[in-house]
Amino acid sequence: MENTAWVLDKLAEMYPEAKPELNFTNPYETLIAALLSAQATDRQVNVVTEKLFAAYPNARALAAADVADVEEMIRSIGLYHNKARNAVAACQILMTKHNGEVPQTIDELTRLPGVGRKVANVVLANAYGVPAFAVDTHVHRVSGRIGLASSKNPLQTERQLCEKIPPELWNETHLRLIYLGRRVCRAIKPSCAACPLAAECAYANNKQSL
Ligand code: SF4
């Protein structure tokens, strides 16, 4: 992909106002919503976090929760056993090691239970405005198809995207690629004929077959 700037401009035209589709209002909520989001839609997560954040409005409250009560509250989303245990354990660590605050470095974040690199990057970008490129399934698939990255491995994809794209554009480009992946470049049957990126897209031009 030689024309990264063209792709970024086109994405900005397509989705000038791309925003996170998970609901959160502070770093604690961002962390918990992101932690709950694996194998669940944002809409499903938003339904459970509305109740969860009302019952447990901060890390102190969730750290003291009974895991079984949290499980009951989030049981409509996938992996709820592990997610409930991890969310409570993560908040206990926030209380004992971080004064109840969500840390602002990827190393500290990824030491929390259930927090991988993708969740940590979502927290850094959305809670703190730190340039970070969270690579979820949409970002990985779409950036591979377009030709912005060429790896089977999300970590490598993150590195390749970060090399090609200026840091000040990471957060918004991440959101725009998710919008594209959900609305146009879906996993099955991407809508290439209607996609403004088709002229420069490797997949649409049969340059590769991701
Ligand atoms: S042209 Fe097709 S493969 Fe390329 S980004 Fe658009 S929808 Fe995806």
Structure write-up:
- This protein has 2 domains: 4-18 and 133-200, Endonuclease Iii, domain 2, CATH 1.10.1670.10; 27-128, Endonuclease III, domain 1 (Orthogonal Bundle).
- 56% of the residues lie in helices and 0% in strands.
- It has helices at 4-14, 27-36, 42-55, 59-63, 67-74, 80-97, 106-109, 117-128, 137-146, 154-164, 170-183.
- α1 (4-14) crosses α11, α2 runs antiparallel to α8 and α9 (137-146) crosses α11 (170-183).
- The longest helix has 18 residues, at 80-97.
- Iron/sulfur cluster binds at residues 142, 145-146, 184-185, 190-192, 195, 197-198, 201, 203-204.
Element layout with pairings:
Elements lengths: L3 H11 L12 H10 L5 H14 L3 H5 L3 H8 L5 H18 L8 H4 L7 H12 L8 H10 L7 H11 L5 H14 L27
Helix pairs in contact: 1-11, 2-3, 2-8, 5-6, 9-10, 9-11
Tell me the fraction of residues in β-strands, as a range: under 5%
Which spans of ≥5 residues are poorly predicted at pLDDT below 50? none
Supply Rg: 18 Å
Q: State mean pLDDT (0 to 100 scale).
A: 95
Summed up, the helix count is 11
Q: Categorize the overall geometry.
A: elongated
Summarize the main sheet: none
Number of E-type strands: 0
Computed structural class? mainly alpha
Helix content: 55-70%
Give helix and strand order, one letter per element, not per position: HHHHHHHHHHH
The CATH H-level homologous superfamily of the largest domain: Hypothetical protein, domain 2
Record keyword descriptors for this entry.
binds iron/sulfur cluster; 210 residues; 2 domains; mainly alpha; Endonuclease III, domain 1; Endonuclease Iii, domain 2; 0% strand
